[in-house]
């Protein structure tokens, strides 16, 4: 019998047959594997990039929310600072002018002292005694911010003066206070009571 070699009877023949059958060399297969590996790597990188980019909107919202909270905090802080300053100013004004009502009720007593001193004879014991008491009382009230409005020969100012008499007097500018009939008073920088005054009219207009 004649021995004939059958295809596939030897392992080396099988490998050669398979390679020849596909028409690809080992180099071709290695190249295909490299391409496939590169494609897989690119796909993985793409998926990772998308996964990393996905939280961006959430991060953006968190940043916006954080900025909004910071703005609200700064506005609240500014409002609180304004409130604190206003409260301190109101408290200061309260203590500064707390005696306004009491002093306003006391002003007629000072008016009576002025009348007594005006009609008493200067130099006698009565006048000296009344003047001493008046100075002591008024000095005490000055410590709490009481100041008189008693100047004459000054322009009439409706903020500080109440005109009760008008007198023709061409020797002084018109609307000049020529006499104080009843003192007015300040409490610190506020008018506690305007002064009652006599005002001259008929004179030259004061140049502003």
Task: Give a verbal description of the structure.
There is one protein chain. The chain is an alpha+beta fold. Among the domains are: 11-53; 100-201, Nucleotide Exchange Factor Grpe, Chain A, domain 2 (Roll). The protein is built from five helices and seven strands. It has helices at residues 11-22, 26-53, 56-96, 100-119, 125-142, and strands spanning 146-149, 154-155, 161-168, 176-182, 184-187, 190-193, 195-201. The strands form two sheets. Strands 2-4-7-3 form a four-stranded mixed sheet, with no helix packed on it. A three-stranded antiparallel sheet has the order 1-5-6. Helix 4 runs antiparallel to helix 5. It is rod-shaped, with a radius of gyration of 53 Å.
Furnish the topology, listing elements before pairings.
Layout: H1 11-22, H2 26-53, H3 56-96, H4 100-119, H5 125-142, E1 146-149, E2 154-155, E3 161-168, E4 176-182, E5 184-187, E6 190-193, E7 195-201
Helix pairs in contact: 4-5
Model regions low in confidence, pLDDT < 50 over at least 5 residues:
1-21
Q: Give me the count of strands.
A: 7
Radius of gyration equals 53 Å
CATH class of the domain at 100-201: Mainly Beta
Instruction: Provide the helix percentage.
Output: 55-70%
Spatially, the strands of the biggest sheet line up as 2-4-7-3
What is the general shape?
Answer: rod-shaped
Overall mean pLDDT stands at 80
Architecture per CATH nomenclature, i.e. the level-2 architecture of the domain at 100-201: Roll
Give the helix tally: 5
Structural class by helix and strand composition? alpha+beta
Q: What is the H level of CATH, i.e. the homologous superfamily of the domain at 100-201?
A: Head domain of nucleotide exchange factor GrpE
SSE string: HHHHHEEEEEEE
CATH topology value of the domain at 100-201? Nucleotide Exchange Factor Grpe, Chain A, domain 2
Largest sheet: 4 strands, mixed
What percentage of the residues does DSSP assign to strands (E)?
15-25%
């Amino acid at each position: 019998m004649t021995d004939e070699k059958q295809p596939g009877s030897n392992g080396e023949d099988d490998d050669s047959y398979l390679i020849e059958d596909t028409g690809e060399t080992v180099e071709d297969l290695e190249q295909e594997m490299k391409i496939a590996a590169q494609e897989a790597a690119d796909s993985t990188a793409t998926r990772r990039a998308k996964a990393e980019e996905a939280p961006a909107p959430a991060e953006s919202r968190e940043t916006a929310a954080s900025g909004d909270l910071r703005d609200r905090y700064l506005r609240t802080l500014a409002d609180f600072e304004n409130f604190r300053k206003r409260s301190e100013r109101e408290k200061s004004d309260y203590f500064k002018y707390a005696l306004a009502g009491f002093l306003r009720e006391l002003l007629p007593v000072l008016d009576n002292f002025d009348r007594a001193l005006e009609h008493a004879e200067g130099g006698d014991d009565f006048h000296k005694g009344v003047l001493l008491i008046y100075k002591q009382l008024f000095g005490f009230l000055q410590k709490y911010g009481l100041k008189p409005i008693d100047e004459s020969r000054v322009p009439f100012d409706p903020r500080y003066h109440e005109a009760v008499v008008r007198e023709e007097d061409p020797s002084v500018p018109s609307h000049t206070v020529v006499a104080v009939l009843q003192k007015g008073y300040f409490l610190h920088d506020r008018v506690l009571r305007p002064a009652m005054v006599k005002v001259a009219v008929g004179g030259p207009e004061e140049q502003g």
